[in-house]
Each structure stands twice: as structure tokens, then as C-alpha cells.
Amino acid sequence: MVGIQGWHLLVLLVVAAVIVAIIVVVVALGSKSSARNATQAGVSGQPIPGPQVGYAMDGQPIYQQNTQPETNVFAILALILGILTGFFGIIFGHLALNQIQRTGQSGRGMALAGLIIGYAWLALWILLILGMVAAHAEVVVS
Predict the structure, then answer these.
(1) Which pTM value belongs to this model?
(2) Measured at the alpha carbon of residue 116, what is the angle toward residues 13 and 35, in degrees to the nearest 5?
(3) Is 44 in contact with 79 (CB distance < 8 Å)?
(4) Which element (helix H / strand E) includes 54?
């Protein structure tokens, strides 16, 4: 039987709903974490030293050590969705790289991996579609 059957459509709708739910949750979490981490990086993206907590014996100021910046949520999502879908990995990879550059968060490697895997998936799908079109054109000509 050719075409999409009822259960195929149901599976596609469930997968689409799960992807949309993940995107909504990550966008909500990403906006909160980027606003919180925007104060941890200076204008040039370099981390700002922590508050001064006192003075050393020689009179030099002592600063509180900053914690490591959080990993960008979009970078994590880019890697996961790049592996699973490809297309959403590309979108979230570019969003993550933009946020990482702006806020100084970590996760650049994950964002790049999501982009590379996503573009590989996209190339694979394009080759698959071109192959199917070429095979269909051969059948029609014969």
C-alpha cells in the first residue's frame, strides 16, 4: 500500500508534538538562563571578577572566585536535536553560537557538533531525495 496510513500519521503527529514541546521548554529555560548569565560577562565577553572580599597581607585586594559559566541550553539542545532530526540541530546550533558569543557561556563545542551533524543530516536527506527522483525518472522513461 502506498501513501501515509492512519498509524503513520499518528506517529508523525506525536513526534512533532514532542519536538514542539521540547522547543517551548528550552526557549523558556534559555531566556531565563541568558538573562541570569548576562551579568556574569563583560562587554567584550570576558568574565567579570567576583566581588572584593578583603585585602591580602601586602594590601592587594582579594576577589571572590567566580564559578564556571553555565553551559548554554541551546547548545545542549543543538547537539541532541542534531543527532535526532538534523534540521532543528542547525537552528539551535546557530542560536546557541550567537548566545554564547554574547553572554560568555560555555558549550561552543556542543553547538558546533550539533551544527555539523545537522548539516550532515541535511546533506543526506538531499542526496536521498535526489536519488529517489532520479530512480523515479528512470522508471518513467523505461
Answers:
(1) 0.56
(2) 75
(3) no
(4) strand 52-55
